[in-house]
Specification:
The protein is 43% helix and 13% strand. By secondary structure, it is an alpha/beta fold. The chain has two domains: 6-246 and 450-471, Glycogen Phosphorylase B (Rossmann fold, 3-Layer(aba) Sandwich), CATH 3.40.50.2000; 261-446, Glycogen Phosphorylase B (Rossmann fold, 3-Layer(aba) Sandwich). The chain has an eight-stranded mixed β-sheet, with helices on both faces. Strands 11-10-9-12-13-14 form a six-stranded parallel β-sheet, with helices on both faces. Strand 12 (357-362), helix 14 (366-374) and strand 13 (379-381) form a beta-alpha-beta unit. Helix 6 crosses helix 8 and helix 6 (145-152) packs parallel to helix 9. It is globular. The two termini are 15 Å apart. The structure holds uridine-5'-diphosphate-xylopyranose.
Length: 472
């Protein structure tokens, strides 16, 4: 019998959800657990193909990588998030997970599944399965506790009339929806993307967490203490972030000791390019794994970066541009040849921890934000959907570690706005204050995972719950 037990981890099939759960998997392995990590077939194949340089095997040093179909046809691009989530409701239904556990338990008398951690946005109804096997079950919420909390309280917000029945905000002005959270703009609500399907899923998520009663979050107490306290009056909350490879929390530039479960191969040549730049000179531009841009926005960004007169590293991922193929404006590359590096996928942690990075132009995906905080890099915010507008509000209004990139009336961020914001952040007085704040949060993010820190303590309590029945 494995001393720590055997944990089954089930992520949502997106890069931003798989990355932190995989880090949790490694932590569990280091605490004596055997881990089975369940991906969709589609993502499993992508991860294997992207990591040919450092091959990942089905048994990845104690993590068993297994997969099942996601229910969509092979040629589906899986970019319609609500549709993919709906398909998963069948392909990862509780009965499917129960069969998987049964199969593992029958095959391995000595290594039966002893605990489950499931992404909070999927596999609703798993509590009955965990109860059947009498094993602990934790929901895993991949972003801010604030995002989890506002979704959790949707029924209350509807019943008091702050939200319409369909989740639409009643007020256009800023409203303090949750007492422990800052006032939010109507567009900050995380269910507004994805229509009715997404709104219903957010309600289901709240109901599921209420049933499971325990939620792990990839955040830390010092970032959002009041809202952690508020949600803790309803369910047990375990903020255990930042879930980032330990070597990047130790304060020196490092390479990851283990390959990351990326969907695309890292273009590591950009690190050599970065080595040739001056300290804190480079603008890093990346929009995560899902955002899609219009051609006009790309053109404005290219012109804005050109006008900012600084070196920049730009991730132009396949699928970033509407309609498929990236179309960088003609002439642009010649104008900026001396100070540009374009890659299709960056080793982001290594990039952000590089001393030559000055700031991060980000879509505000939660992992990117937390990675930026952990490396002490200030941000320019261009959110796209789901929780990213809420994350921007925390970055700009609460923590004061970045500036917004404001859109015009057509929703486009113009080149002048980009160049102005870069200047304000990198040479203005505002920028100096912002850097002070982000440096303070960086220190905090590294302290919380050390012995006695808030995330260390939360993780220890979670570990105790995961091992309890093995010790009884
Ligand atoms: C999505 C949502 O956008 C986000 O709002 C939600 O909180 C999680 O799911 P994504 O858009 O992929 O995630 O953004 P993000 O959360 O930032 O995750 C992207 C991950 O990919 C990060 O861990 C980042 O380090 C990594 N990455 C990104 C790379 O390794 N290389 C790149 O070039 C870009």
């Amino acid at each position: 019998m494995n001393m720590g037990g055997h944990a089954l981890l089930i992520p949502l099939p997106f890069q931003g959800h798989i990355n932190p759960l995989m880090q949790l998997a490694w932590k569990l392995v280091s605490h004596g657990f055997l881990v089975t990590f369940l991906n969709t077939d589609f993502n499993h194949n992508r991860i294997m193909q992207a990591n040919t340089r450092n091959p990942i095997h089905n048994n990845w040093d104690g993590i068993r990588m297994v997969s099942i179909p996601d229910g969509l046809p092979p040629d589906d691009k899986r970019t319609n998030i609500p549709n993919l989530l709906q398909a998963l409701d069948n392909s990862m239904a509780p009965s499917v997970i129960k069969s998987l556990i049964e199969e593992i338990n029958e095959r391995e008398e000595e290594n039966k599944i002893t605990g489950i951690i499931v992404d909070a946005m999927t596999c609703f109804g798993l509590k009955a399965v965990a109860d059947f096997y009498q094993i602990p079950l934790f929901a895993f919420h991949a972003s801010l506790v604030a995002n989890c909390t506002i979704r959790y309280f949707i029924p209350r917000l509807v019943s008091i009339g702050t939200l319409a029945q369909d989740g639409a905000p009643k007020e256009e002005k800023k409203v303090r929806y949750i007492p422990s959270m800052p006032p939010l703009r109507s567009g900050d609500l995380p269910w507004l993307f994805g229509g009715e399907k997404m709104f219903k899923r957010c309600i289901q998520m709240g109901e599921s967490i209420k049933q499971i009663k325990r939620v792990l979050t990839n955040s830390f107490y010092e970032l959002e203490g009041p809202v952690v306290e508020e949600l803790s009056r309803e369910v047990e909350v375990y903020p255990i972030g930042p879930l980032i490879p330990g070597e990047f929390l130790e304060g020196v530039k490092r390479s990851p000791s283990k390959a990351l479960p990326s969907f695309w191969a890292d273009d590591v040549e950009c690190l050599e390019w970065l080595d040739k730049q001056s300290t804190q000179s480079v603008i890093y531009v990346s929009f995560g794994s899902l955002a899609v841009w219009s051609q006009i926005q790309v053109e404005e960004f290219a012109a804005g970066l050109e006008a900012a007169l600084r070196p920049f590293l730009w991730v132009v991922r396949s699928g970033l541009m509407e309609g498929g193929k990236p179309t960088i404006p003609p002439g642009f590359l010649e104008h900026v040849r001396e100070r540009i590096c374009i890659v299709s996928w960056a080793p982001q942690l290594q990039v952000l921890s590089h001393p030559c990075i000055a700031c991060f132009v980000t879509h505000c995906g939660w992992n990117s934000v937390q990675e930026s905080i952990t490396m002490g890099v200030p941000m320019l915010c261009s959110p796209h959907f789901i929780d990213q507008f809420l994350n921007r509000t925390y970055i700009v209004d609460v923590w004061k570690i970045g500036l917004p990139l404001e859109s015009n009336k057509d929703g486009i961020i113009e080149k002048g706005e980009i160049a102005r914001a870069v200047d304000r952040l990198l040479v203005g007085e505002d920028g100096a204050e912002i850097r002070k704040h982000v440096t303070k949060l960086m220190r905090s993010s590294r302290d919380v995972v050390k012995e006695g820190g808030s995330s260390f303590n939360s993780y220890s309590k979670f570990l105790h719950q995961m091992k309890k029945q093995l010790l009884d």
